[in-house]
């Protein structure tokens, strides 16, 4: 009686884990474009944990057959080993997805497309080329306006 209760509880727990992990894969996949490599690692971690949960479901159905074939010690040892491997790899991938570097968002150009600028050549970067021109220290003249000619400095008006 106790054995069947534990089997039912473990099956319910594994089933809830499967639902949770499928939801996680869907949510992470929806954010994949923004998260980049971190989302791929997160999806991989969820898939590995999902395989571990499926293994737990199968283990609940096949536990008596495993005990008959391997004995109680062998069946427990094998199930703990396989579950631990799935768990460790899945959690490691999820942690890797959280700490993975994300690309900074690009500003949207016209029509929502990301603006792409060609990379500057190394000699352009060193010389300061490819930069906008600086404003002159004096104000610019209005079109059509001309300054009257100025006499040379140090000389007075000539008569």
TrEMBL record:
**Domain of life of the source:** Bacteria
Q: Where is the composition biased (Pro residues)?
A: 133-159
Extent of Low complexity compositional bias: 122-132
Swiss-Prot/TrEMBL keywords? Membrane, Transmembrane, Transmembrane helix
Region (Disordered) residue spans: 104-159
Q: Which residues cross the membrane?
A: 6-28, 40-62, 74-100
Q: Provide the protein name.
A: Uncharacterized protein
The species this protein was found in: Actinomadura luzonensis
């Amino acid at each position: 009686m106790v054995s069947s209760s534990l089997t039912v509880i473990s099956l319910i727990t594994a089933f809830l884990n499967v639902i949770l992990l499928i939801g996680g894969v869907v949510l992470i996949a929806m954010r994949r474009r923004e998260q980049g490599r971190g989302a791929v690692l997160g999806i991989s971690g969820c898939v590995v944990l999902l395989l571990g949960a499926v293994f737990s479901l199968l283990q609940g159905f096949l536990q008596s057959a495993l005990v008959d074939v391997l004995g109680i010690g062998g069946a427990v040892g094998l199930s703990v080993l396989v579950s631990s491997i799935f768990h460790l790899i899945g959690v490691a991938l999820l942690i890797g997805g959280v700490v993975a570097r994300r690309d900074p968002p690009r500003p949207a150009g016209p029509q929502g497309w990301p603006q792409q600028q060609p990379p500057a050549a190394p000699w352009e970067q060193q010389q300061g080329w490819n930069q906008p021109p600086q404003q002159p220290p004096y104000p610019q003249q209005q079109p059509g306006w001309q300054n009257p000619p100025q006499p040379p400095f140090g000389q007075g008006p000539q008569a």
